[in-house]
């Protein structure tokens, strides 16, 4: 609600100028909000605000009080999101280049749309070009109140729909108002049975058919660090990622032992092993080394540190 209004502090300076200051949320937060409300702003989208409001008006056609609310809300929506004049947009920014004499002027609404459809969505190149001379800061400054007001307006309409539904005026399926649309947590955890098999093994035909006998169940003692998938490793092949460190051979792993019988933290990091090293890390490195031998020709001999430092080719 606070962001829907333009708030700024103005500080007078001794030289006769003033310093204007405005504070906004992090850009990523506003970008996320803009991406969520973008369909609400698009007239061609099924959940466009105007379409939802028109449907509400249809169900409330016999109620003068509700009909008046719908008309007032529609007028305010158009004035805020699709202003017909620059005055309705709130303000206009004017800039001039002191050397070339080139001048530009754009109202707040057009600056805001340039940010939403140019900086966030990267779709409307014409709007982006129109807003380019003013810089990212001006486009963002204009967009924040519009994004916030659209969020408030959408929430207001949703609450109105809930009230009409509760009163029996607007019938809706129960799941419409209860279906989850956001995640409560991004830590996704569940329990169940898991099976694995070599690539190419026949898969179960449906989720409720018996698992073919070729599939082996994962158990508590299974070494999960040894499992790999082509889909997950395709970006890690040496041929496609030349800067990935070459996995060491079993002999090189043993040769890197310290006199105390362990391995240094920086050495493990160079091999891509986290600290502390997980159980089965040596076996995993060996499997990676064997896979690398199978995917292509033998690797080139390792260079000495001096050669690596001086070779700029």
| Percent of sequence in beta strands | 5-15%
Number of helices: 13
Tell me roughly what share of residues is in helical segments: 40-55%
Terminal-residue CA separation: 58 Å
Counting copies of identical and different chains, the oligomeric state is single chain
Strands of the biggest beta sheet: in what spatial order?
1-2
Radius of gyration: 31 Å
Give average pLDDT, whole number: 84
Summary tags:
single chain; 313 residues; mainly alpha; two-stranded antiparallel ribbon; two-stranded antiparallel sheet; 6 strands; 45% helix
What is the fold's blueprint, element by element?
Layout (H helix, E strand, L loop, with lengths): L8 E4 L5 E4 L5 H15 L7 H11 L4 H18 L4 H4 L2 E5 L6 E5 H13 L4 H7 L3 H32 L7 H5 L16 E2 L19 E2 L12 H4 L16 H6 L9 H6 L10 H15 L9 H6 L3
Antiparallel strand pairs: 1-2, 3-4, 5-6
């Amino acid at each position: 609600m606070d962001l829907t209004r333009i708030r700024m502090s103005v500080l007078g300076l001794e030289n006769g100028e003033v310093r204007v200051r405005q504070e906004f949320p992090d850009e990523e937060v506003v970008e996320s909000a803009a991406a969520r409300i973008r369909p609400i702003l698009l007239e061609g989208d099924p959940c466009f605000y105007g379409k939802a409001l028109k449907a509400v008006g249809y169900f409330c056609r016999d109620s003068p009080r509700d009909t008046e609310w719908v008309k007032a809300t529609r007028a305010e929506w158009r004035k805020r999101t699709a202003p017909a004049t620059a005055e309705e947009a709130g303000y206009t920014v004017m800039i001039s280049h002191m050397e070339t004499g080139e001048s530009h002027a754009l109202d707040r609404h057009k600056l805001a749309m340039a940010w939403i459809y140019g900086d966030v969505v990267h779709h409307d190149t014409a709007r982006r070009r129109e807003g380019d001379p003013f810089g990212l800061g001006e486009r963002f400054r204009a967009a924040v109140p519009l994004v916030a007001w659209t969020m408030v307006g959408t929430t207001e309409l949703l609450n109105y729909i809930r009230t009409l539904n509760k009163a029996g005026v607007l019938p809706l399926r129960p799941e419409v108002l209860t279906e989850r649309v956001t995640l409560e947590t991004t830590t996704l955890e569940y329990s169940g049975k898991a099976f694995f098999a070599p690539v190419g093994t026949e898969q179960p035909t449906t989720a409720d058919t018996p698992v073919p006998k070729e599939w082996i169940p994962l158990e508590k003692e299974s070494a999960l660090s040894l499992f790999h998938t082509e889909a997950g490793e395709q970006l890690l092949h040496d041929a496609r990622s030349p800067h990935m460190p070459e996995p060491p051979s079993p002999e090189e792993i043993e040769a890197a032992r310290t006199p105390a019988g362990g391995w240094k933290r920086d050495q493990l990091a160079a091999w891509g092993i986290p600290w502390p090293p997980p159980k089965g890390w040596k076996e995993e490195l060996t499997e990676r080394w064997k896979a690398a031998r199978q995917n292509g020709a033998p690797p080139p001999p390792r260079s000495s540190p001096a050669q690596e430092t001086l070779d700029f080719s």
